[in-house]
Amino acid sequence: MRAGLVAGDIGDAAALAGLAPAWWELWHRADATPFQSPAWLIPWWRHFQPGELFVVTVRRRHRLVGLAPFYIEHGGAGRRVLPLGISLSDYHDVLLDPDDRDAAAAALVDHLADQAARWDAWELEELAPDAAALALPCPQDCSERLIEQSACPVLLLPPNARTITDVIPARKRRDTNLARNRAERCGEVRIESADDRTADAFLNVLIKLHTARWHSRGETGVLADSLVQQFHRAALPGLVANGLLRLYLVQIGGRPASIYYGFMHCGRAYTYLTGFDPAFAFESPGVIVLAHAIAQALAEGAHEIHFLRGRETYKYEWGGIDRWNRKRSFRRTGAMARA
User: Fold this and answer.
1) Residues contacting residue 75 through CB under 8 Å, at least 6 positions apart
2) pLDDT of 1
3) The predicted structure's pLDDT at residue 2
4) Contact predicate 57/94, CB 8 Å
5) Helix axes 226-241, 38-48, angle to 10 degrees
6) Which residues are CB-neighbours of 325 under 8 A, at least 6 positions away?
7) How far apart are CA 42 and CA 20, in angstroms?
8) What angle do CA 169, 172, 173 make, to 5 degrees?
9) pLDDT at res. 219
10) Contacts of 65 (CB under 8 A, 6+ apart)
11) Taking the alpha carbons of 188, 255, 198, 248 in that order, is the dihedral positive or negative?
12) At what angle do helices 20-30 and 38-48 cross, to 10 degrees?
């Protein structure tokens, strides 16, 4: 145990939920992404529970100064420590209090090492370039591997930018104007924002439009899974209550045409999912809703738009440039010998 610090771990859902108030306080101090928030990860665990809960906490007196939200997967690859939110989160990380960063990081890793009999590998997935987990010390008796994992294009917003025309390429400005003109010829174009009363109804529209878009391509899409739908529905109230959610709906002539589901925090906007009605493909309502989301983020003082994982062409058309997530893996030396 590090001087003045006490580390432990949480292994049941009730205790995880009870951690939420202290978790939120640490999350704000750590300047983390919405994907590390209790609003996202507690519902994820409640709905999926793919293994043995293993959330490591570090406290100084009664103050939470470190948190590693993980679980242990038992399978053919051995006993792997994996992050909560895996597959549905674009960024993972540990949370460390800035005033106790090094000591909390060391205490967290010491606890993982003390629990080495419970795991063979510790996989730190989808770490952004500024992730706190990249600076964690390697646990005792472990080997380490660091590789590039996923491209996450980011649009950088200049500090002197005032409108969207100041930040997106000229060709995309023309596309946006063309889409708006075509849509207005079909009827009134209205853009609405979800609040605590309408968020659930907006999610229903997202599911419908996202699914329709993927069906038009002969695929299902991530929202086809009912459990994934339930997770997002459960996450909405916490995201709304803490000011993180951004849900925008474009209607053309009174009909839902496109929708944006994203987040905003600390000057960074995250474009998580979109959907549009294929019947409006000519009007490009997806361009309209994304332009609106970028403009709103700019008005809120954003300095970055994160298009998240994937190298889809449209992200670069908006001016995105690649940032690479990395994967950091620790494997116990004894586990390697047995493999």
Assistant:
1) none
2) 56
3) 65
4) no
5) 150
6) 90, 91, 126, 127, 128, 148, 149, 150, 151, 152, 309
7) 8
8) 85
9) 77
10) 5, 26, 58, 59, 96, 97, 99, 100, 103, 104
11) negative
12) 130
User: How many whole angstroms separate alpha carbon 305 and alpha carbon 292?
Assistant: 12
Check: CB of residue 179 under 8 Å from CB of residue 287. Answer: yes
Q: In a 3-state reduction of DSSP, which class is residue 173?
A: helix
Task: Give mean pLDDT, residues 28-51.
Answer: 97
Question: How far apart are alpha carbons 120 and 150 in whole angstroms?
Answer: 24
The per-residue DSSP string of 211-256 comes to: HHHHHTTT---GGGSHHHHHHHHHHHHHHHHTT-EEEEEEEETTEE
> What gap in Å lies between CA 81 and CA 112, rounded to an integer?
10
Residues 6+ apart with CB under 8 A from 94: 66, 67, 68, 69, 105, 108, 132, 133, 136
CA distance 95 to 58: 10
**Residue in this structure with the two tokens 């053919």, named with its chain if needed:** 76
Alpha carbon distance 88, 153 (integer Å) = 17
DSSP symbol at 280: G
d(CA 178, CA 191): 17
DSSP letters, 61-125, are: TTEEEEEEEEEEEEETTEEEEEETTTTT-S----EE-GGGHHHHHHHHHHHHHHTGGG-SEEEEE
- The 3-state DSSP class for residue 100 equals helix
Q: Which two tokens stand for residue 225?
A: 């899974």
Tell me how far apart the alpha carbons of residues 272 and 258 are, in angstroms, rounded to a whole number.
14
| 8 Å CB contact between 116 and 141 | yes
- List, for residues 234-274, the tens digit of each pLDDT value: 999 999 999 999 999 999 999 999 999 999 999 999 999 99
